[in-house]
Design brief:
This protein has nine helices and nine strands. The two termini are about 15 Å apart. It is of the alpha/beta class and about 240 residues long. Strand 3 (about 120-130), helix 6 (about 130-140) and strand 4 form a beta-alpha-beta unit.
């Protein structure tokens, strides 16, 4: 989609542009990068645990653990089982600076700006952690964020290395989107929705949209998109 795309029909009361983040807006995944960013600046000895991270990844590939468990294990290994909010948030902010400065597709930024100018409400929906996604979203001028939550007890000054609720991925992500729409009094027939993603796991979100855009897609999504009538763009080619 070009940044000069025509606006949605004025009969719709709401315009929403939904973006995945990792490998859609960003050039690569951000989760592992965040863990290593924190370990290097906080407790470098934790980098010695990277072989255990590899073992956890193997266990996931063998389907011995699910994505949620894998993310919690890696967070515990490289950041800790429990960590202070005041200590980790500056590192989340510095990581967001790094991602925004070096890790984004310029074409994605152009499309975000175009959707904003066309009156779309921007929603970032990602399986990455709220812990640092919120900081990235603020820098991009994103209106709303749905991301994977960590266990952060109310009023406590610490965060636990375990997920609070589902990993915001696939069907669970779409369930979060549906709840967000309901919570914002946005009904489907009153909304024009655009959705952008690189990965086939976002099939529910893309299928739901009026305009589905497979952005720099994975192999499976590249094969699926033409069958579904979804637009395919390669944001790597627009630098």
């Amino acid at each position: 989609m070009d940044k000069g795309s025509p606006p949605a029909s004025p009969i719709h009361a709401h315009r929403v542009a939904m973006y995945d983040m990792d490998r859609t807006i960003t050039r690569s995944g951000t989760y592992s990068g965040f863990l290593i960013h924190v370990a290097r600046r906080r407790q470098q000895w934790r980098l010695l645990l990277l072989p255990l991270v590899g073992i956890a990844g193997l266990a996931y590939m063998l389907r011995l653990i699910d994505r949620s468990r894998l993310k919690a294990i890696n967070l515990r290994l490289l950041v800790g089982g429990r960590f202070q909010r005041t200590e980790i948030m500056p590192l989340a902010e510095s990581y967001a600076d790094h991602v925004v400065e070096r890790g984004l597709h310029p074409a994605a930024l152009e499309q975000i700006a175009a959707d904003r100018a066309a009156g779309y409400r921007l929603l970032l929906a990602t399986a990455s952690f709220h812990l640092y996604v919120d900081a990235i979203a603020r820098r991009l001028g994103i209106d709303d964020v749905l991301a994977t939550r960590l266990d952060e007890p109310d009023g406590a000054d610490h965060i636990h290395a375990r997920l609070a609720g589902d990993n915001c991925y696939g069907a669970a992500k779409f369930a979060r989107i549906a709840d967000w729409l309901e919570g914002n009094a946005i009904t489907r027939d009153e909304a024009h929705i655009r959705a952008y993603s690189d990965h086939v796991s976002d099939h529910p979100m893309l299928h739901f949209a009026d305009e589905a855009i497979a952005t720099t897609p994975s192999r499976k999504l590249r094969l699926l998109a033409p069958k579904m009538g979804w637009q395919v763009v390669d944001w790597r080619a627009r630098r």
